[in-house]
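Why this split exists: single-chain examples teach little about how molecules sit against one another. For that reason, every record in the complexes split bundles all components of an assembly together and asks for one structure covering all of them. Below is a record exactly as it appears in the raw files.
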Amino acid sequence: MSTYPIRALAEAGPARAAVWPYVGTALDLPLAAAEPPDQVQAAAPTGFAARRRVPLGVALAALFLALLLVAALAPGLVIGGDPLVGSGRDAFYAPSAAHWLGTDENGRDVLVRLVHGVHPSLLMGFAATALALVAGTALGLVAGLGGRVADALVGRLLDTLLAFPDLLLALVIITFFGQGLGNAIVAVGVAATPRYARMVRSQAKLVRASGYVEAARTLGQPGAVLIWRHVLPNAVRPVLLVAAMGVGVSIGAGAALSFLGFGAPPPAPEWGAMLAVGRNFLANAWWLVAAPGAAITLTVLAVTALGRAAIRHGEGREL
Amino acid sequence: MSWRALLPIALALAACGGAGEGGRGGDASDPLPRVAAGQPVTYPSRDYVERAPGRPGGTLRVVAARDNGTLDAQLLADTNTKWLGRTTFDNLVYLDERGRPTPWLARSWTVSPDGRTYTFTLREDVTFSDGERFDAAAVKANLDRIRDPATRTAMTTAYIAPYATGRVVAPFVFEARLSEPYAPFLDVLAQSWFGMVSPRQIREAPGTIATRPIGTGPFTVERYVRNQVLTLAKRRDYHWAPDVIRHSGPAYLDRIEIATVPEGLARYTALASGERDFTTDAPAANAAAIRADPGLVLRSRINLGNPLRGISFNVEKPPFDDVRVRQALARAVDREGLARSAGLGEYIPTTGFLSASTRYYDAAATRDLGYDPAAAARLLDAAGWTGRAADGIRTRNGRRLEATVLTTDASPLGFVVIGLQADFRRIGVDLRLEPIPLAQFAQHRTANDYQATGAGYWHTNTPDGLYIVYHGQQINRGGYTGQNITRLDDPRLNALLAAARRGGDEATLARLYAQAQRRLAELVPAIPVLENSTLVAYRREVHGLVFDTSHNTPLFTTVWLEGPGA
């Protein structure tokens, strides 16, 4: 069972590289560039691992993420118990055989709540990133292809949005539209939009000037077809890879909002909110903070590790 | 009006704490509360008087949970004001440890036979810190300010609503005329929010009371930065502390420096590390650690007034317009569990509508509201909620038994409601929480647009707190802002509370308040769950702490510091 995700990834590797031919040339990402090539060399696995071409860290990340996906879709399969209803009489029990991660201030099993908290966390990560991606792509294409006025207008709008720190922008949005998971997703998504829009814009400009677009235009293809068939796919692909890492950032941002009390109302088992309540008891119930803290950290780490692997893979480099 | 001695019916919580009297050895922590639910509570008299003279000098570094944003005690009757007001202001009267009014700035007083005219004879040697003389005109200026709608002191005004006019009979004789007999008048005048402000400041610069209040109190404000720090300096010519505390002359401390730290854990660590000497809001979560620390002392006091309500129903809105539903929910609450959950054993479960330390608390009246899920289920069955939805929630004619409770976000009492939610779920009632900002809360109240409200308490120093919170006249109606958030308007209860308000002898008041508490137990407009406890903690070098008789909060006049240079 444990080898399944690793194999799947390894097998998918070469095929995917073949599907994405332009990625390597068009990518100018600080994240990818930040990694010096020689270090990649040094980290390159040898022997048995090299044959599979999947480092242990990525494998573990994939395994963990697979487990999270199961927990998100069917938490009841992973663990039994009620995440919402407990008895105060059972409050603050330290981790034990009966409660692996102890119980919280309302006597609920912390592990059960963690597992049930996977769904909102992943939903937040993926939905907010998808939203940012769609909105960012639309804005980026308008700016990149729409001529000077559109470029200037969208550019200033993005500048304005970028002037706010992401979390602050998200807080402003939530203040206007009210709290809850749906609004938090929108808030985090909107806050992340400018980065994608900028990337798509520069990619679109690059692709528009490329030889194959030139060729397609010469062949008399109409503008809409040109954008849909040639510009969009080639401009968006590199951004997709960055988005894979953006998921981790969105999960973190969602947890931060929830920590500040802007997530779903109690008793919803959100990791950030669990952390927020738990910190009051840090001195005598460390597990209330340690458990959701570790869950958030590991999840963001796993998603980011996979995202990074995907980027390198897309560049045709070693995982 | 004569309040004769009410003998303490039972002595609880006094078991230990006797060790280390006077200056040697310092205070001992109060024991973990072990009150058989439904026992009246009294505290030892020695907690309210200075036991030995202290050593002058030093700065006491205090850490508090919150800053009111204003030092105007009359304007904002916040929970912080209870102890803060006592540092800069003095009152006309002060309660003794049994709750009877005794002299403070008023040396004596008489009450007319019809209970409508109070004549106070004032001390003649008191001055405000701006040099103004404290006299009958000053008292009139203060009461008139509180009564003036333009001052917007809604809560404080409500306490002296029957005060009609004041008259300066002689320079040091003040006469207050009431529109109706109002027995708690003297009690409320002893509350911290009725501290006397300099009449010159009221006249010339009322806006500055919020930041630089001028009173007759043992300390004056030296520096105030909102939400950060407040520094108080000793008034060296102060010599009019209340007779009851048996302290003469100025305060011992040269300075009190108060920092605001909302995080409970941070307050605890500041205290444990010696960065601070005293916290007025010790976090219950760390109480055990404070008790275990030989360098620290934890003191616990049950507040007077009404205890903590886990939920207050709007009795006009379904499903809570059905008294059987309310009764059922009261019996569904596992208060022992809540006490562990909310206070880790520092809080005391109660079913009472008055707190156990309040006069005329009747333990027997609400005994039937205790935890009994089977009885709760029978009541819901009787109310017709016999069906069950797929998720186990009760239904009646296809409608689910569900409701939304408004809570203010970031309320430290948040998980009390979450505990209730779980308890209700077990008997098939779906309670949803809607956290909203405080400002929206008032809008919902004014519009009568809510089914229930979350955890809260009402503190006052008299059993008349029942009138404030449950009398029909105190409902928000036609522009009137009252504190009856339940919108209960029961003629029988109204009559009992109004009669008690008019006054009478001990036996009469005891009977009226007992009947009122029994009636409340039948109507269940809210679910009392825990006693409202004040936890304070301090380092062992701190001595001489006296508790305020009105609020059971610290009185800093008698506090002193041990050690060189302190």
